[in-house]
Specification:
163 residues; two-stranded antiparallel ribbon; 2 strands; elongated
Length: 163
């Protein structure tokens, strides 16, 4: 378990370095909002954009893993899953909570990677004048993220059926 937590934190650190390291490639006013055609239609000062992206790419996934576990509690008292009594019986409680930690980390990893890609697409949009987002790539990434989220949720619900 510790190895997976360590790899997750390394991924977040690498994404933080990516966001911070890309500052030199961004103009003082960063196109941070794009229309359906990929044209920029909103900007933010670079420092604010970078803080926002760090919060989204690193802070949000980290919060998902940490807050979800804190809300569940050490004994699972805040957990709301199908067949809760069965899965939180003393003989299964630890394994159930470990499973949830892994599943939340998996979701948070996918979210961090998706948001890191969105940042990369935003940086690449500034290679054009005026900035233009690669909408097909963004939509494909969004579709894959939403599909993987739906599969993740279905797998989680199926996992908590009563055997």
């Amino acid at each position: 378990m510790r190895g997976a937590d360590h790899r997750f934190r390394l991924l977040l650190a690498a994404l933080a370095l990516l966001v911070c390291g890309s500052a030199a490639w961004l103009p003082p006013q960063v196109a941070a909002q794009f229309g359906p055609d990929g044209a920029a239609n909103g900007t933010l000062p670079r420092a604010l954009y970078l803080l926002l992206m760090l919060g989204l790419v690193v802070g949000l996934p980290l919060s998902i893993t940490q807050l979800s576990l804190a809300m569940v509690g050490p004994e699972g008292e805040g957990l709301n899953v199908p067949n809760r009594r069965f899965w939180l019986a003393p003989e299964r409680r630890e394994a159930t909570l470990a499973l949830l930690r892994r599943r939340m980390r998996t979701f948070a990893t996918g979210l961090a990677l998706f948001l890191g890609l969105v940042h990369g697409l935003t940086v690449m949009a500034h290679r054009h004048h005026p900035p233009r987002l690669d909408t097909p790539v963004f939509l494909a990434a969004l579709f894959l993220f939403l599909l993987s989220t739906a599969l993740w949720l279905a797998g989680l619900l199926l996992r908590f059926r009563r055997p």
